[in-house]
UniProtKB/TrEMBL annotation:
GO MF term list: FAD binding
Name this polypeptide is given: 2-polyprenyl-6-methoxyphenol hydroxylase-like FAD-dependent oxidoreductase
Residue stretches spanning the membrane: none
Annotated ranges, domain FAD-binding: 5-313
Organism domain of life: Bacteria
Length: 392
C-alpha cells in the first residue's frame, strides 16, 4: 500500500492534496521551488463542488471572512467615460454561495491546515524520478517515495520528467494574459474598472482591505517567442501589445515597469489522456489546466486534490481518480474557449453590443434568462461531479 507521498509544488492543488492525504493517514512531504508559500496573486473563484470540499475541510468560515467583497464592475470608454455598470458577481459568473478570494489568502489558509503535520521543503525542486520511486532534487539528497504527486502548475516540471515535453499536451487558445500589482490611482473600492479595445482588454480592480490594485491585461495574439525567465522582456511584449489603447492604459503600463509580482503567460490548456504513469500522478493545472479564462482552475484543483486522496485511501487508486474526475474536467475545460471570446472582443461593433447589453440588462423583461446564459454554463460545469464521502 502507498504510504509515503511526495507532492511537487505548494500550489492550491499541492497544499489541498497535502491536507487530504495526511488526513487519510499518508506520510506527506511537499517540495516547493519558491522560498516560502507564495503570497498575493490574483482573485480566484470557488464554486459548486469545490465549495463542498472547502466545507469538509472546515474552512468555509475563514474563506468567507477573507472574501474580496467585490461590489461592481464598470466599463469605461477610451476617454474615461462610464459606459456600463454591472454587479460584480454577475460580471464574474458567480451565483448562489460561490466565493471569491485572493489566491494567496486561500493558499495561506491551506498551508496553515497542514504546516504542523506535513513536511515542507522550500527552495528546492525535483530533478528526476526513478522507477523504484527514488527522487532526486536540485539541493536535497535523494529520497524514496511510494508515489509522487505533480502539483506544480501548467508548466509542470514533474509532468515533463514523467510524461514528456509540454508541447505534447498544451493547447494554446490564442491569447495572452498579464497580471501585476499597481498603485490604486483610480481610487477603486471593491470595484473592477474595465476597458475594451478590439483584441485587447484592460481590467483594474481593488479588493476589500487592500490599498493597492491589480492590473490585468488580456489580448489575442499569434504565439510569441520569449524567455520565461526574462521578466523585462515580457513587460516589453505587454507594452507593445497594448500600444495605442486609451483610457488609463498608458499610465498603467508605466506602473507595470516597477511591479515586483509581474505575471505573464499564454492562455493555454493542458489536455492529457492519462494523468498517472508508474509512480507519478498529476493534479490541478499540471494535469488539466483549464486556463484562467475558464474561471475554474481553483475549483478543479480543490476537487482534484480531494478525489485523488480519497481514491488512494479507498482503494480506487489513480485509476479511480481518473475515472471520477474525467467528465468534471472536460466540462470545465470546455468553458475556456467560450469564455475568452467574451473577455477579449474582436471588433468595435462587438464591444458596442456587449456594453449596450450590460447597460440594458437590469431593465430587460427576459433578465433571468439572460443571466442564466452568462452564469449558467459555469454553474453547471462547477457542479458536474457527485463527490463521494471518502470518510465513510
Amino acid at each position: 500500500m502507498t504510504k509515503s507521498i511526495l507532492i511537487s509544488g505548494a500550489s492550491i492543488a499541492g497544499t489541498a492534496a497535502a491536507y487530504w492525504l495526511r488526513r487519510h493517514g499518508f506520510d506527506v512531504t511537499v517540495v516547493e521551488r519558491a522560498p516560502a508559500i507564495r503570497e498575493g496573486g490574483y482573485k480566484v473563484d470557488i464554486r459548486g463542488a469545490a465549495l463542498r470540499v472547502v466545507e469538509r475541510m472546515g474552512l468555509m468560515e475563514a474563506v468567507r471572512a477573507a472574501s474580496t467583497d467585490m461590489r461592481i464592475a464598470t466599463h469605461y470608454d477610451a476617454n474615461g467615460r462610464k459606459v456600463a455598470t454591472m454587479d460584480a458577481d454577475l460580471f464574474g459568473g458567480r451565483t448562489g454561495g460561490d466565493a471569491e478570494i485572493m489566491r494567496g489568502d486561500l493558499n495561506e489558509l491551506l498551508y496553515d491546515l497542514t504546516r504542523h503535520d506535513v513536511e515542507y521543503v522550500f527552495g528546492d525542486s525535483v530533478t528526476g524520478i526513478a522507477e523504484d520511486g527514488t527522487v532526486t532534487f536540485e539541493r536535497s539528497a535523494p529520497r524514496r517515495f511510494d508515489l509522487v504527486v505533480g502539483a506544480d502548475g501548467a508548466h509542470s516540471n514533474t509532468r515533463r520528467i514523467a510524461f514528456g515535453e509540454e508541447s505534447q499536451y498544451a493547447r494554446d487558445l490564442g491569447y495572452y494574459i498579464s497580471i501585476c500589482t499597481v498603485p490604486n490611482t483610480l481610487g477603486l473600492d471593491r470595484e473592477e474598472a474595465v476597458h475594451l479595445a478590439p483584441g485587447r482588454t484592460a481590467n483594474v480592480y481593488s479588493t476589500r482591505q487592500d490599498t493597492r490594485a491589480k492590473a490585468l491585461f488580456m489580448w489575442s495574439s499569434e504565439p510569441l517567442a520569449y524567455d520565461h525567465r526574462d521578466t523585462e522582456g515580457q513587460k516589453d511584449l505587454l507594452v507593445k501589445a497594448m500600444a495605442g489603447v486609451g483610457w488609463e492604459v498608458p499610465a498603467l503600463l508605466e506602473s507595470v515597469r516597477d511591479a515586483k509580482d509581474f505575471y505573464f503567460d499564454s492562455v493555454t490548456q493542458i489536455h492529457m489522456d492519462r494523468w498517472s504513469k508508474g509512480r507519478v500522478v498529476l493534479v490541478g493545472d499540471a494535469a488539466y489546466c483549464a486556463s484562467p479564462a475558464s474561471g475554474q482552475g481553483t475549483s478543479l484543483a480543490l476537487v482534484g486534490a480531494y478525489v485523488l486522496a480519497g481514491e488512494l485511501a479507498g482503494g480506487g487508486g489513480t485509476e479511480g481518480y481518473e475515472r471520477e474526475m474525467r467528465e468534471f474536467v472536460e466540462a470545465n475545460q470546455a468553458l475556456g474557449p467560450a469564455n475568452v471570446k467574451g473577455m477579449v472582443l474582436g471588433s468595435p461593433v462587438a464591444i458596442w453590443f456587449q456594453t449596450r447589453m450590460v447597460r440594458l440588462l437590469p431593465h430587460l423583461p427576459g433578465r433571468d434568462r439572460m443571466i442564466d446564459r452568462i452564469a449558467g454554463p459555469i454553474h453547471r460545469a462547477a457542479n458536474a461531479i457527485s463527490l463521494k464521502n471518502y470518510s465513510e
